[in-house]
From TrEMBL:
InterPro entries: RNaseH-like_sf (IPR012337), Transposase_11 (IPR002559). Signal peptide: none annotated. Gene3D superfamilies: Transposase Inhibitor Protein From Tn5, Chain A, domain 1. PROSITE patterns: PROKAR_LIPOPROTEIN (PS51257). The chain crosses the membrane at residues 292-311. This is Transposase IS4-like domain-containing protein. Coiled coil: none annotated. It comes from Spirosoma utsteinense.
């Protein structure tokens, strides 16, 4: 604890100790289910003689603690953003993704609306909100999330990528007014008349796109100019959803806009790591929004620490690339590579803290630039 004072000077020793126990147990068991984590606490603390029920009560007391619920999650996220800002910035991406993931937990609906920064092909969660409902987020809910994020991280000049459920006139206006660029996929049925006023008819543009052309057209929407881009889906015109329709406030070439939108897929990989391929987030047993918020904050910090180690070990990850003209494909994800490094240091909590504090002071510099534009939709 003494070694961690500078790192976590605002946390009480008891709270920090319990945080470390929870985090290390999650890493070892690859789940957030407290019933499964309780079996690991005795091994971590060297107290095997104590009954697992006592360890379970310790875990529940931590998540019931008012300071942990109201302050600890904020400290974790602020620390995390400061940590990311210190990474090697020479090739830092300017891309953000907005997406959501939802699942049912008993009678409670969990719907995490997430804002991620894409750094060298990996999505890093900046901020999120549990909307606690089924269906899509509203424009107002998205605005609130971005307003909170802009207070914590410099988003001006970044490019936001989002799927078709994140469209809306007021939403486009909000992003443009706040100097945030965007490339957002559109449903086929929206803004037909507005797009047609830009020159060619909407139907004519779609016909050309179905023939394999990438087409674009500028149009006005409530006094703001946007670029409409249409192209055929990679599965061809006979697929169930043959067209990819995009809107952007950027004046980039249409091929560049279509290519950069593919980066959005990195967030799907992020969700996979939080769930089935990493921390089994859907196994959480809380319905309390504050407890869920704290647990997600802990998991996100662990995820980013694993990603950092994976980036440091990037030169050890074997590639599937067959020729110099094909995009880089890895045999192992950066997160899983980093996870294997981190979990290998969990000999004891004391050893893990020594190692972690040493790693956090090292400058993160990746020896190779990652190419991630040529990915599938």
């Amino acid at each position: 604890m003494d070694k961690s004072k500078d790192f976590a000077q605002h946390l009480s020793p008891a709270l920090l100790n319990n945080l470390l126990v929870v985090a290390c147990a999650i890493l070892l068991k690859e789940t957030v289910n407290l019933n499964k984590l309780k079996n690991q606490v005795g091994l971590l603390l060297g107290k095997r003689q104590i009954k697992t029920d006592s360890h379970y009560k310790r875990l529940t007391r931590f998540f019931n603690d008012k300071t942990a619920q109201h302050k600890l999650w904020k400290w974790l996220i602020i620390w995390l953003l400061d940590y990311i800002k210190g990474w090697d910035g020479r090739s830092r991406s300017i891309y953000l993704t907005l997406d959501g993931t939802s699942w049912q937990l008993g009678t409670h609906q969990i719907h995490l609306l997430t804002l991620c920064l894409v750094y060298r092909g990996v999505s890093l969660l900046l901020l999120w909100r549990d909307l606690g409902k089924k269906g899509h987020s509203s424009q107002q809910e998205r605005k609130r999330l971005l307003q909170q994020a802009m207070k914590l991280y410099p988003l001006r000049g970044f490019c936001l990528l989002a799927d078709r459920e994140y469209e809306g006139k007021e939403w486009f206006k909000f992003l443009t007014d706040n100097k945030i660029n965007f490339i957002i996929r559109l449903p086929k049925t929206v803004y037909k008349a507005d797009i047609s006023t830009g020159g060619k008819a909407y139907s004519a543009l779609l016909k050309r796109a179905l023939r394999g052309r990438t087409v674009s057209q500028w149009f006005e929407l409530e006094g703001y100019r946007y670029q409409f881009v249409a192209l055929c889906h990679q599965d061809g015109p006979q697929s169930a959803d043959p067209l990819v329709l995009l809107v952007s406030n950027l004046d980039w070439p249409k091929q560049t806009i279509a290519e950069r939108y593919r980066i959005r897929w990195t967030t799907e990989c992020f969700f996979k790591h939080l769930k089935s391929n990493g921390f089994d987030l859907e196994e959480l047993g809380f319905e309390s929004p504050r407890k869920i918020r704290l647990l997600v904050a802990i998991v996100v910090v662990l995820y980013v620490i694993c990603v950092a180690e994976g980036l440091r070990q990037f030169h050890r990850i074997r590639a599937k690339k067959k020729s110099q003209y094909e995009p880089l494909r890895l045999r192992e994800s950066i997160f899983r590579k980093g996870y294997s490094v981190v979990v290998n240091e969990l000999i004891s909590i004391a050893h893990f803290v020594d190692w972690l504090l040493a790693q956090l002071t090292k400058h993160l510099k990746v020896p190779i630039r990652l190419f991630f534009f040529n990915v599938q939709y």
